[in-house]
């Protein structure tokens, strides 16, 4: 099962506490926006996320190719 199928499989589950905008894994370091394996730069989370969503096990990464930022668990 590739990364896109895994994400699509987990989106509709009611028992998953994380929202849909949090991508589920960083196992293969694939950027969910451009599809290249370039998620290697950690980006600090905004203050609002730190204060309100501190209980979520998410990390923010930036793609080296498209420079988009994504939340991953």
Helices and strands, with pairings:
Elements: H1 3-11, E1 22-23, E2 39-43, H2 47-52, E3 59-63, E4 69-72
Description of the molecule:
This protein has 73 residues and is an alpha+beta fold. It has one domain (3-72). The protein contains 2 helices and 4 strands. It has helices at 3-11, 47-52, and strands spanning 22-23, 39-43, 59-63, 69-72. It has a 4-stranded mixed β-sheet with strand order 1-4-3-2, with no helix packed on it. The longest helix is centred in the N-terminal third of the chain and has 9 residues, at 3-11. The model has no long low-confidence stretch (mean pLDDT 72).
Find the structural class using helix and strand composition: alpha+beta
User: Which of globular, elongated, flat, extended, rod-shaped describes the shape?
Assistant: globular
DSSP strand (E) fraction? 15-25%
Span between N and C termini? 18 Å
Q: Regions with pLDDT < 50 over 5+ consecutive residues?
A: none
- Oligomeric status of the shown chains? single chain
Spatially, the strands of the biggest sheet line up as 1-4-3-2
Number of strands: 4
- Alpha-carbon Rg, integer: 12 Å
Residues in helix, %: 10-25%
The structural domain count equals: 1
Largest sheet composition: 4 strands, mixed
What is the number of helices? 2
Residue-averaged pLDDT, rounded?
A: 72
Helix/strand order, N-terminal first = HEEHEE
């Amino acid at each position: 099962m590739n990364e896109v199928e895994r994400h699509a499989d987990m989106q509709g589950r009611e028992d998953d506490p994380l929202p849909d905008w949090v991508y589920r894994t960083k196992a293969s370091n694939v950027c969910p926006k451009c599809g290249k394996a370039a998620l290697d730069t950690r980006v600090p989370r905004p203050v609002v996320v730190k204060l309100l969503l501190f209980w979520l096990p998410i990390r923010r990464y930036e793609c080296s190719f498209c420079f988009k930022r994504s939340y991953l668990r």
